[in-house]
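Ticket #4471: structure export looks truncated?
Reporter: QA, pipeline team
Priority: medium

Steps to reproduce: submit the single chain below to the structure queue and open the exported record.
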Amino acid sequence: MATALASVYTNLPVRSDTAMTGEITLTGLVLPIGGVKEKVLAARRAGVRRAILPKENQKDLRELPENARAEMEFIFAERVEDVLAAAIPDLSSRLTMPKAA
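Actual output as written to the record:
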């Protein structure tokens, strides 16, 4: 939802080759999620080869078949800024986001 709002606000498109899942806090932290294996495999079946996941879920990739891990690119995000930079390529040149203290 945050990525969609940023896209609408800036009039910049979100990458169409990228799946993403996760939750963010009001302070911008990306929280871990469940069901990583199922979500990644579903994205792969749909033809998506790039996924943005919470950094804390990096260990969950061990559950994926080796061929699925090899075919996909994974971006791990700790903060909403990481997600937006990976999902909306031209965003960083448009905005200056404040850093958390």
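Status: closed, not a bug. The export was complete when the record was re-opened. Leaving a note from the reviewer for reference: The radius of gyration is 14 Å.
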